[in-house]
Amino acid sequence: MKNKILAISLLILLTTVSLASISFTSAAGEGQWITAYTIRDGQTNQLLIEFDSATGVNRTVSPVLPGAELQVTFTVNVITSGPGNLKLQTGLAKSSIHTNSYWELTSTDYDLGSKYNPNSAQTEFNWVAGTFTMVLYGKAPATVSSTSKPINVVSLLGETSGTPIDQIKVSVVTAEMDQYLSLYQQQQAKLRSLINDGVNQGYIEIFTNVLNASQTAANAGNVDVAIALLRGLNVSNAPASSTMQMLFIPLIGVMAVIAVIFAILFLRVRGKVGYFQLVVEDQIKDLEGLTLRASKIDRSMSSSLESVKDRLKNLVGM
Q1: In whole angstroms, what is the distance from residue 286 CA to residue 305 CA?
Q2: Which of 25, 94, 223, 282 has the fewest CB atoms within 10 Å, measured from its CB?
Q3: Which pLDDT score is estimated for 6?
Q4: Which residues of the chain have pLDDT under 70?
Q5: Could you count the other beta carbons within 10 Å of the beta carbon of residue 13?
Q6: pLDDT at residue number 265
Q7: Model pTM greater than 0.70?
């Protein structure tokens, strides 16, 4: 029975890993027409994101949080003149600070034309070759899901085409998601360090699989589970010798248990929760024996397994 449960758990873990395709990107722009931009907090003037195609700068200093007042300064290079007008539009709400307008032209040598309306979320301007800089004032959505879709902060479109010529996209994340992203970056750096230090390949594979599983959990909206997975990787002394290989298979089982918990939250089927909880409790008992064995070989590993066991107990209410 236990072997079947472990097999099911491993299958769930491998499935979650194979589905991990999330990419946490804070902002994006092709840099062909919109050649540079900065996004600042409209209240504190703190720099959040900056991009410059000429210098290769593309960095996120701080995440965009729900309801944040934003000040977006961007430069548009109209490569060539064309028929009709170009369009600017934003997915941001009206700013509660700069209530008079969305758009503010800061360049003095570019004529936007008579159809330009700075107080509209979508406006048109002359399609004339040249370069200009503009400031957009807006407000990020007040409520978002744990993994919200990117917002089209600025979209540049042709007169008749509905497909943007260039865009500035920003992902608005919750504070919890921001915490996950920070932990994920830390664990990625730790994985690179483990690889460079020549840590046992079996441990590297486990570490990588858990990172991928955390991405899947976060993408499904279970950010708390994703954070728990990453925190479970906090092992101070990773195994470098063959002596610790005996712990790898049981450790995979431990990670599979965490995957089962993710499945419980992901499926959200009350009728199955009781069964899965019994499975988890049974695995916790096995983990107690594993912890005892590990304590005779490596106290650091034993302490880490004890921490994972306690987290599992808290999650199932033991």
Answers
A1: 11
A2: 25
A3: 37
A4: 1-31, 143-149, 161, 219-221, 234-309, 311-318
A5: 25
A6: 56
A7: no
Q: What is the pLDDT of residue 117?
A: 95
Parent domain of 148? 27-170
Structural domain total, the chain:
2
pLDDT at position 133 is 97
95 C-beta neighbours (distance < 10 Å), count:
18
Whether 180 and 296 map to the same domain: the answer is: yes
* C-beta separation of 169 from 156 below 8 A: no
Of 170, 201, 236, the position where a domain reaches its end is: 170
Which two three-digit tokens encode residue 257?
């248990």
State how far the Cα of 139 lies from the Cα of 161, in Å rounded to an integer.
26
Do 278 and 184 share a domain, yes or no? yes
Amino acid at 25: T
- Identity of the residue numbered 114: S
Whats the size of the chain, residue-wise? Answer: 318
Tokens of 172: 């608005």
Q: Taking a C-beta distance cutoff of 8 angstroms, is the pair 174, 146 a contact?
A: yes
- Of 170, 186, 202, the residue at which a domain comes to its end is 170
* Rounded Cα gap, residues 152 and 155, in angstroms: 6
Q: Are 149 and 132 in contact (CB under 8 A)?
A: no
